[in-house]
Write a structure and sequence with these properties.
With 239 residues, the protein is of the alpha/beta class. It is 28% helix and 22% strand.
Length: 239
């Protein structure tokens, strides 16, 4: 029962340290944090891994930073969401690729793997039984938002489910073959939804009460929200 996260060094004091401290107390298994630099502070059950050692990560980032050069962006890559003097996270392929490559690497451990955004805090003791129950025999446990893209601040993957291999093949292709740049947006939510659609893998919808027009932080009103608080968007700077 592995929890996986990733964060930049500049976010350590803002929220990442708090996240690791709380999950080391309340998560029922190992936590793997994928980072650019190994922090000086250790926590029980937390293992640090360098992103640059993850297969394919640096190659993808390098491609984005070089092939995405665009004259109107004044030297910035359009694949960082910066062009014509503005910024849109919808097209920031670099910022949101780190979590996906971290997932790819963590899947090698087998079993059930959970992605948890680093701007989250564990509120109470989380049991293995609770996490197992989120899947209900399905391949993935996600916060589907019909008419919008999936909320990926918390995602469960059962790597031993029969349909997982087909899902993973499609998920990897999004980045390996550049399919990402044919999608409506270039961040991980679009990548995940594309892989789910093409693979036809089964999933439970953890945010089944959500409908278009509701607040985007669907986790708050779910059973997961009883145990985990996701400080989404600007909330992370105020937590």
């Amino acid at each position: 029962m592995i929890g996986v996260t990733s964060f930049a060094p500049k976010h350590w004091d803002v929220y990442a340290r708090k996240m690791l401290e709380s999950f080391s107390k309340h998560w029922p298994g190992e936590i793997i944090a994928y980072v650019d630099e190994i922090p000086d502070e250790d926590f029980p059950k937390v293992t640090y891994k360098l992103l640059r050692k993850v297969h394919g990560h640096d190659q993808f980032v390098s491609y984005c930073l070089t092939a995405g050069k665009d004259r109107p962006s004044k030297g910035d890559s359009i694949f960082t969401g910066r062009f014509h003097g503005g910024y849109s996270y919808t097209y920031d392929a670099v910022r949101f690729c780190h979590k996906v490559f971290a997932q790819f690497d963590a899947f090698k451990n087998g079993g059930k793997v959970f992605w948890i955004d680093a701007d989250s805090v564990a509120l109470d003791q989380i049991t293995k039984k609770f996490l197992d129950g989120l899947f209900d025999g399905k391949c993935l446990a996600i916060f589907d938002r019909p008419g919008f893209y999936t909320e990926t601040g918390f995602v469960g993957f059962d790597t031993e489910h029969p349909s997982f291999k087909k899902f993973l093949d499609e998920y990897i292709k999004v980045y390996q073959k550049g399919t990402l740049f044919t999608l409506e947006g270039w961040h991980d939510c679009y990548a995940l939804d594309h892989a789910i659609k093409l693979s036809g893998c089964s999933y439970t919808n953890l945010g089944k009460e959500w409908k278009k027009g509701d607040k985007l932080e669907v986790m708050d009103d779910s059973t997961v929200g009883l145990y985990i608080k996701h400080f989404k968007g600007n909330q992370k700077w105020q937590s």
